[in-house]
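In this section we walk through a basic example: taking a raw amino acid sequence and producing a predicted 3D structure, encoded as discrete structure tokens. The instruction is simple. Fold the sequence below.
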Amino acid sequence: MRQPSVAGLARRARANPAYQRTAELADGIVDSGPWAPDIDLVAEQLAAGTRSAREVADWRVGRLHQLRLAYQEARAGRGQWPAELAELRTGLESDGVHVWRGLVGPDELAAMQAEMDAFVARIEADHLVATRYQSREGLWPEDAAVVSNDAFAWSPELVAMAGGPPLLEIAEGYLGPGPVVQRAQAMRYQPHQPSDRHQFRWHHDLEGRRLKAMVLLTDVGSGDQPMTYVAGSHRRRHSIHRYHDNRLRLGYAERYTRHVEPRLLTGVAGDVIFFDSNGLHRGTRRPTGAVRDVLVIEYAAPGSPLMGGRPVPDAVHGLSDDGQAAFATMLATEPVWERTVDRGGWLDQLIDVESWAVPVQTSSSTTSTP
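The resulting token sequence is shown next.
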């Protein structure tokens, strides 16, 4: 895979006003080298509150990248898991993926399916075409898809699911205390020729450790258009290079995963697929596959980049205190599709350590597994 040059990265940095230390961006690429032995210790100290973010603020970008990845893991180690979620916990930690069969009940599923149909009908009637990946919603003609990055705006059922048990408990267990709801997507894929565009090629999501919950609204068999995931690949700490170019191949996983096992994530309507988007994954397209409808909830640690959104207000107000807290950052964030300057991505944030090294606070709602 071709790597971006240091000179090219420096030019890109100078063109982006979000970067405040452009020269050190290039230095960070050169400096990203072997994993520094003190990184994990410093990350634990940040998570424990025995070291402040200001003490590492002058580190080069390459080391800050390593530190942030380690810090995510240190936060996750303080997560609390209810005992009844032990099987799901094991699946996520070992493989990076777990399918909860039949999690969505018949009534809730019917409501979500109706909401999805209404959304697609509106977009198709208006012939609204998305102009970029970060668009709020629209048709993706080249991919035969209809997509929303703001599904909370029209699905109160999804808001209630994202801000309540068991999903919020799972997010806290996997990401550590105080997880935030990052985004809600809706996707309808019509049958389509095989593709390696965008999410249909092997990639990771440029976010480090992050949890997604994919709700199947239609049955998805092995001959349809399921997502494929490389089990165990979520444990990889991707280099800073891979945050400039996240296009990957299976050979990349073979370097660090003993048994490369791409899994077709199939299921029936009402199943929920939980996965860490740091692992290698891709969508699958087939001209003879059935239409696939999914809703996707994204959770991240506090301080992570957010796309923003406009969730149904009454649905948020009906959540518990912990549920409302999980949505608070989204409600306070200007949606990316309304911004004149895109800011706040992983690389943009690295030099602002205080923005992502958020003090760990323990939730009052969950109990730890013995």
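Looking at the output, two observations stand out. The CA atoms of residues 126 and 317 lie 31 Å apart. Residues 1-7, 17-31, 363-370 have pLDDT under 50 and may be disordered. In the next section we compare this with other chains.
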